Amino acid sequence: MENLMRFDVTNERNLTMLVDFYELTMANGYFSKEIQNKIAYFDMYFRRVPDGGGYCIMAGVEQLIQYLNNLNFTNSDIDYLRSKNLFSEEFLNYLKNFKFECDVWAIPEGNFVFPNQPLVIVRGPVVQAQFIETMILLTINHQTLIATKANRICRAANGRTVMEFGSRRAQGYDGAIYGARASIIGGCDSTACTIADKYFHVPAVGTMAHSWVQLFDTEYDAFKAWAEVYPDNCSLLIDTYNVLKSGLPNAIKVFDEVLKPQGKRPTGIRIDSGDITYLTKKCRKILDAAGYPDCKIIVSNSLDEHIIRDVLSQGATIDSFGVGERLITAKSEPVFGGVYKLVAVENNENKIIPKIKISENTEKITNPGFKKIYRIYDKESHNAIADLIALNHEVIDESKPLEIFHPIETWKRKTVTNYYVKELMVKVFEKGKQVYESPSVLEIKEFSKNESLKMWPEILRFENPHTYYVDLSEDLWGLKQDLLHKCIK
Amino acid sequence: MENLMRFDVTNERNLTMLVDFYELTMANGYFSKEIQNKIAYFDMYFRRVPDGGGYCIMAGVEQLIQYLNNLNFTNSDIDYLRSKNLFSEEFLNYLKNFKFECDVWAIPEGNFVFPNQPLVIVRGPVVQAQFIETMILLTINHQTLIATKANRICRAANGRTVMEFGSRRAQGYDGAIYGARASIIGGCDSTACTIADKYFHVPAVGTMAHSWVQLFDTEYDAFKAWAEVYPDNCSLLIDTYNVLKSGLPNAIKVFDEVLKPQGKRPTGIRIDSGDITYLTKKCRKILDAAGYPDCKIIVSNSLDEHIIRDVLSQGATIDSFGVGERLITAKSEPVFGGVYKLVAVENNENKIIPKIKISENTEKITNPGFKKIYRIYDKESHNAIADLIALNHEVIDESKPLEIFHPIETWKRKTVTNYYVKELMVKVFEKGKQVYESPSVLEIKEFSKNESLKMWPEILRFENPHTYYVDLSEDLWGLKQDLLHKCIK
User: Fold this and answer.
1) Does A353 contact chain B (CB < 8 Å)?
2) Hey, which residues 6-35 in chain A have their CB within 8 Å of chain B?
3) Residues spanned by CATH 3.20.20.70 within chain A?
4) Which of A302, B82, B144, B208 has its CA 20 to 30 A from that of B200?
5) Contact A25 B440 (CB under 8 A)
6) Chain B residue numbers touching A42 (CB-CB < 8 A)
């Protein structure tokens, strides 16, 4: 075995080297060509909403800030890179003394975001702006994916409690921890992930596993023991043997014998297998008849938004859903396809030169230039009408009507009056210095819930939602056309 | 904002509290009932191979060992738990002085593993053996999922190079880092994930992104600059504008003008979009005609085992595949459903009392008792014939014929002669002390490749593979039947 330091899941974490190797070969290339300090602009954006949905929920900005604040190449990083025989000493020396100098803008977490609009914009020396690509994508892609999935699931639950239960099936430790964080942002009420509660102050919940029941001689003994330990939080898992023949009768017996004499009420019963609709209806009737109409019915077992909607439409009587693997991995579509593209550079006179990447596929052509996003709201309903991506210097005069149009099918036009606008992006770094403080996770969740009230229900449909308008300003549209025609020549 | 310590992606990592909250409520319950030191046996196993495959590749044991070696509740963990008003001071005091005392067995990484056999067995005080459930599942589920997916993809590539390119679309930072590790175990040749190279000594590779090409005035300038910086590793991305009209001609021009005069050969060209079959065939012909038959063709762009097999069957001329999001998230089936079940306890006389969990679904009934696994090999071909799960005290006499039978359809029987057996599981912890050292990742990869030679090709098919036999010994089968009949009574 080599005598080198081994990576340990419990090590201190320096994620600076969590980077695609080509960012390093390119960075070294910029140095060799002496263009490392050329100012570049990159947009991070996505092209498609997962699961055929109409919106995504932005998440991950707080972790992105932490990463950018802690960029730091250790001596062992430098030694490792030197051993590759690819990098110049000048470049390695630069890394050794690395100091982050970029400007960064982001859409704050919890916002409703849409395809083809920048979620993050970076401006700075190309060697730096390029380097941070991997972690920007990794961070925003992951948490936005899970927050969006959680939001769909919570919408299906229609006001009922949703608990995130997925840690054991997450894709890695951060998948569990930040997945729990993003789930709360997306609308979940609580999580089973204890460390997420400790650090993000989001409520952790949990009762018993089948093993508790198995460990005792009988199910009744197991329930009795639990009720004695947790008379104020007595929630029993009733499907280890047989829900209706054994689990529920034993639970009610224990409620009657242990809780009732103390004047306590049971919290709930949980079912983790079998036919949810049938069992919950039966259990509800039996619990009500036994004098426990306040005992909640909790279900778990491979749930997602479709199953939840389906069993509720069949009249299942459920108070609370525990959602595991299908949420924590976004199982139905586990990839969030955010990309990071060069959109402009500055020339020697600090003039912005927009850049475009063309493609056979019209939707894949990038929007060039240094931009900002306006969200346009109706003055009466306060509903969001459209987003307008504009060049950064553009200002909208809210006192005047605003004509917006589809960026490809340009004959689709609309003139908006009686509106106001809000700029979506905030500056989070100014020349490498953090200038934005993230709210707490519960504040973000609350913010996101309020934002949802400003979205037309048509946008929020599970399938075939109305496509929210993300338009380009006249000037940006014109610039794009110019560049396209020049490229094609 | 609260004045509490905030979790930071760059913090030192103590994953002790990455635990489902119910493990803690149960643990506290065991204390209250004074059964915390009852000796329990848990099996971790899975029930189904993802993607309809015939086998999985075991991975994650090294990280599991690290976690178990570092279980440690800090004062702030204890304070946090106390604030929940659920846990007794006696229990909190126990956590404060926590010392891991369990025995742990595991199947070493890289092994071919199959449904319903234990991958990990834990024996120890129930309070401890229960507590570590979440991290055992999280660790083994994630890495086994990705190693298995990687193995399928590498089999489709049929000896061609496969590079793991997925960091930016991984589900969290560990998803990228340990996903890269598991990809190599599964058979990938290299990864783009730099930190995985630094810590696991698996080769990191990478060249350029589209942004490098865009940054220069022309594609030719960009390629020329690259060839000048990396004359010995000149691999060019040729699809920023148009592969055949612009990318490839510019690449060949640069090979001719920059590399040839230096006596250098190009490494490769990469295509990241468009029709792979058509483009690679065209490119191969043009490169050959231009005098570069040794220039490799590398493709990327949402590849998986099915697309790779498909384009190769159409005659695509590809030397190397870069596989991203569909590998790093196991997109087609992103959940590995490992479970952790109580299978036995010891009574006060240290006698093992087997436990069973029954289910309507026959496949979901657990295998009771403290067990071990024999893999049976044919003495001539050295191919694996079957696995036999036996009670831990059972010994197979290889000199005698061995009758094995299907554990449910028991009339399906076979007598094996001319065989030898190997015990699959190794002891990794003895009363809380590590007694096994993980090989390096490349050693595991090599081991796994050798193991694949001992598997019948019928097991390795992508679809409808032959089901590898995982049978129960006569004694174990009998024990299970006894318990089942007792339960049903």
Assistant:
1) no
2) 6-15, 17-26, 28-29, 32-33, 35
3) 209-303
4) B208
5) no
6) 211
| ipTM for this model | 0.95
The one-letter amino acid code at B330 reads A
Which part of chain B has CATH 3.20.20.70? 207-317
Q: Kindly list the residues from chain A whose CB atom is less than 8 angstroms away from the CB atom of residue B66.
A: 8-10
Name the CATH superfamily for A15-146+334-488.
nicotinate phosphoribosyltransferase (3.20.140.10)
- Per-position pLDDT tens, chain A of length 489: 333 445 566 666 889 999 999 999 999 999 999 999 999 999 999 999 999 999 999 999 999 999 999 999 999 999 999 999 999 999 999 999 999 999 999 999 999 999 999 999 999 999 999 999 999 999 999 999 999 999 999 999 999 999 999 999 999 999 999 999 999 999 999 999 999 999 899 999 998 999 999 999 999 999 999 999 999 999 999 999 899 999 999 999 999 999 999 999 999 999 999 999 999 999 999 999 999 999 999 999 889 999 999 999 999 999 999 999 999 999 999 999 999 999 999 999 999 999 998 877 777 889 999 999 999 999 999 999 999 999 999 999 999 999 999 998 899 999 999 999 999 999 999 999 999 999 999 999 999 999 999 999 999 998 899 999 999 999 999 999 999 988 765
* CATH number for the domain whose boundaries are A209-303: 3.20.20.70
CB pairs under 8 A between A and B: 356
Q: What stretch of H or E contains B40?
A: strand B39-45
The pairing of strands B296-299 and B320-323 is: parallel
Residues of chain A with CATH 3.20.140.10: 15-146+334-488
DSSP A368: P
Pick from B93, B108, B220: which is nearest to B444 by CA?
A: B108
- Look-up of token digits 């090294």: B62
Task: For residue A146, list chain B residues with Cβ-Cβ distance below 8 A.
Answer: 171
User: Looking at beta carbons, which pairs linking B122-125 to residues 24 or more positions away fall under 8 Å?
Assistant: B122/B41, B122/B42, B122/B44, B123/B39, B123/B40, B123/B41, B123/B370, B124/B39, B124/B40, B124/B432, B125/B36, B125/B37, B125/B38, B125/B39, B125/B40, B125/B101
B-chain residues within 8 Å CB-CB of A133? 168, 209
Tell me whether residues A209 and B133 touch, CB distance under 8 A. Answer: yes
Residue B32 neighbours by CB distance under 10 Å: 17
B378 touches A at CB < 8 Å? no
Q: Report the residue of B174, B301, B336 to disrupt the A interface, i.e. the one with the largest count of A CBs within 10 Å.
A: B174
Cα–Cα–Cα angle for A479, A483, A484, rounded to 5 degrees: 115
Is B207-317 assigned to CATH 3.90.1150.10?
no
Contact A20 B167 (CB under 8 A): yes
Residues of A in contact with B439 (CB under 8 A): 1
